Amino acid sequence: MKVTGTAAARYHPDRRAVILFLNEEDNLLAEKLFVHKQRKDEKEGGDSYITYELEVAARERTYKQINTVWALITIIFISMNGRKPHKDEAYELYLDVLALYANKVPNRFTGELRPVHLSESDIEDAASLISHCMNVIVEYCDLALDLQADVRKLFNTWQGWRGEMAVDPLDYDADGNPLTYAEWRKNHLVSDASGAGGYLERSHIVSGGADKADYEEPWNWLMLTALEHRDWHNIGWQAWSDKYPHLKSRILRARQLAGA
């Protein structure tokens, strides 16, 4: 009997243990598999081993991410020039943004670092670029009210999409390793709640008192303004997430992972 599928996973080095969070459709099969294993072990008087294979595949960027990047490029251009860009103008601005903010890889011939284009990016590269584009808009763009509404819609949709994924691409590197806070901070240049810039604080979704072991996991963090952070503690996570519904999925996922 064999179960093959994909799952969110966490590794505990102190226990040499891998915990898998199965998709609902795989859960029943896995339960039957381990019932079968238990019966076999009891019959043979030992602990049989299972064969396993773990892989963290590179996840390709999605069309939603690509569309978000180009929408943000367009908004940045309109803010700078007062009109929509032509196709070649949008591409030139895109190249400028890549040069400043895209992840870099070595040139195959010279070894010099070059920016990763959308056409070759994975889901983490694209998410990082979107985050930096959001920051450009907050820091440098004076937007008209209609463009502010467009950015707000893009921001909320993007945050909600990340929260609904089993693994947020801004919490881990391309190899599936959790980011340190310094690394994570570089991808969170605006508030996760409001998109505001300026002075920001890290908030923990699940407190250390409730789950000390996972307190410093990146999936347990939110980047907030000081006022949003205080509000979180004053009114509680349920009422707070009603104010910022685009973060509900991220909050619920963290609570699930922490066993809350």
How do the strands and helices of this protein lay out in sequence?
Layout: E1 7-12, E2 17-22, H1 24-44, H2 63-81, H3 87-101, E3 104-106, E4 113-115, H4 123-140, H5 145-164, H6 181-186, E5 201-204, E6 221-224, H7 226-235, H8 237-243, H9 248-257
Antiparallel strand pairs: 1-2, 3-4, 5-6
Helix pairs in contact: 2-3, 2-4, 2-5, 5-9, 7-8
The helix fraction, in percent, is 40-55%
Number of domains: 2
Main beta-sheet strand count, sense and barrel state:
2 strands, antiparallel
- Spatial extent as radius of gyration: 22 Å
Class from secondary-structure proportions? mainly alpha
DSSP strand count: 6
The low-confidence runs, each spanning 5 or more residues with pLDDT under 50, are none
In what range is the share of β-strand residues? 5-15%
Helix tally equals 9
- Overall geometry comes to globular
N-to-C span: 32 Å
- What sequence of helices (H) and strands (E) makes up the elements? EEHHHEEHHHEEHHH
